[in-house]
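Good morning,

Attaching, inline, the backbone tokens for the sequence recovery test we're adding to the shared suite. The designed sequence is right after.
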């Protein structure tokens, strides 16, 4: 047990870097930024797996050793527990007056009457009645076996919790995705594979090919803010399909809120946050139009001033070299509640009130054919550095306003949509974790509240004329908890008075 406690302390100590340092599975960009900012120290921590603590070799080793130690502790203790549960209460000591609690009196009842009353009073106790020398008879009684039972439940629940967590790391997965909140076809997310997610963190035994299918459609999003612009409530009216609904095309309504996730198909869908999607229409010189709505990310969580990049391929251009000279990207800032000071656009509140964009229109090669993945929020800065992507216009636009490029291309700012950020979590062991956690609390309560105590009763005929019975009552608390003195006094009073309280 001492080894288990040391390992439990080491496990808690080893988990501290996972809380204090950014973790790569949760936030890769922030982790990379931290390593770059701290030079050799950050690189050393990375080599020592401090940015992936809970999957590190040293954390797993402590975890495994703790489990082995608990098993090695509980096995012999379980056998001892079984033996103690089957054992009878100990014999009545020869000299009861040496017990911490002792009472003696001579009563006007026969030994049989005293013993009968004692049996009734000690009902529920584990008792053994014995014949002794000199015509004396005794009862040994013990109670509080649930204390050790609670202790065993507590420690086995800890072991079960550790195993459940370990299995959960193998079969759990978690994914994040951004979905438009318009109620249209672009507002439907289906849990059909990892390609549907923007980021996906699988367990060790999850390859993403056997996800439980379900679909979610985001109809709208609403938020409430304080006067200072701090959010107080997020909610989204959604519809979802799972199971047989996928075959029948039935959609069920649900109000998705921050602390009220959708639970379906064994998964939980959480509402994490939201943002805005500027809508741009590009009218090319030949009259062809293309409308694009790409999510922009908030760079200020108070005012929701957002940045992003909406990208367009030129229509009707089949030559790859020519296409790479005419691709467009509309980058810049979006302000839901706009305020311009000295020509600089900013936002004063997160609500959608007088939205504007400050755009830089980039033309050239966006690097979409390079084979490298790109963030939807950014352009490839290496193309800018090489001169293959150049800025051709810059302007602030309100809804309905437009800008015309030097080749006659017209770009208009048509409006704004909202998007929501969802997180889908799957953990098949969560019910077991909850069950073991409840068992831990129940076992801990039993081991702390239940008192192990013993009572002995000895009766013998009184000396002399034989009238009356000498009754001796002894008591011993097998724990250091207070309170047994009062209980023993009550029991002794009832045994000495035949069940009548004084």
């Amino acid at each position: 047990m001492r080894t288990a406690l040391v390992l439990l302390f080491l496990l808690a100590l080893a988990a501290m870097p996972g809380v204090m340092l950014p973790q790569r599975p949760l936030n890769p960009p922030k982790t990379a930024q931290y390593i770059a900012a701290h030079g050799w120290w950050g690189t050393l921590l990375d080599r020592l797996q401090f940015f992936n603590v809970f999957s590190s070799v040293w954390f797993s080793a402590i975890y495994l050793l703790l489990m082995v130690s608990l098993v090695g502790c509980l096995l012999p203790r379980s056998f001892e527990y079984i033996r103690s549960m089957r054992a009878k209460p100990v014999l009545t000591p020869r000299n009861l007056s040496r017990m911490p609690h002792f009472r003696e009196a001579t009563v006007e009842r026969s030994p049989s009457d005293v013993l009968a009353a004692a049996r009734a009073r000690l009902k529920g106790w584990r008792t053994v009645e014995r014949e002794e020398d000199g015509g004396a008879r005794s009862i040994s009684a013990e109670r509080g076996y649930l204390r050790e039972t609670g202790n065993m439940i507590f420690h086995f629940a800890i072991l079960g919790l550790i195993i459940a967590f370990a299995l959960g790391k193998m079969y759990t997965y978690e994914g994040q995705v951004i979905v438009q909140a318009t109620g249209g076809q672009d507002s439907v997310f289906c849990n059909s594979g990892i390609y549907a997610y923007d980021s996906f963190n699988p367990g060790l035994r999850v390859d993403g090919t056997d996800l439980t299918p379900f679909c979610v459609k985001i109809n709208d999003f609403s938020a409430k803010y304080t006067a200072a612009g701090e959010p107080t409530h997020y909610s989204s009216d959604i519809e979802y399909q799972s199971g047989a609904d996928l075959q029948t095309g039935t959609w069920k309504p649900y109000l998705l809120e921050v602390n009220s996730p959708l639970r379906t198909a064994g998964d939980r869908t959480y509402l994490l946050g939201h943002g805005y999607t500027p809508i741009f229409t590009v009218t090319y010189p030949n009259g062809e139009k293309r409308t694009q709505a790409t999510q922009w990310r908030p760079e200020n969580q108070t005012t929701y001033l957002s940045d992003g990049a909406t990208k367009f391929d030129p229509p009707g251009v089949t030559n790859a070299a020519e296409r790479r000279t005419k691709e467009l990207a509309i980058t810049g800032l979006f302000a839901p509640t706009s305020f311009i000071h000295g020509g600089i656009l900013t936002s004063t509140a997160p609500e959608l009130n007088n939205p504007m964009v400050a755009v830089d229109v980039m033309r050239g090669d966006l690097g979409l054919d390079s084979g490298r993945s790109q963030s939807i929020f950014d352009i490839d800065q290496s193309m800018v550095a090489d001169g293959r992507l150049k800025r051709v216009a810059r302007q602030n636009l309100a809804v309905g306003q437009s800008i015309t490029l030097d080749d006659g291309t017209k770009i208009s700012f048509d409006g704004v949509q909202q998007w929501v950020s969802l997180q889908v979590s799957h953990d098949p062991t969560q019910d077991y974790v909850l069950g073991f956690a409840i068992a831990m609390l129940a076992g801990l309560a039993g081991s702390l509240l239940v008192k192990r105590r013993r009572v002995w009763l000895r009766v013998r005929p009184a000396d002399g004329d034989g009238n009356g019975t000498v009754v001796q009552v002894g008591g011993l608390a097998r724990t250091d908890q207070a309170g047994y003195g009062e209980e023993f006094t009550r029991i002794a009073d009832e045994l000495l008075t035949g069940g009548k309280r004084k």
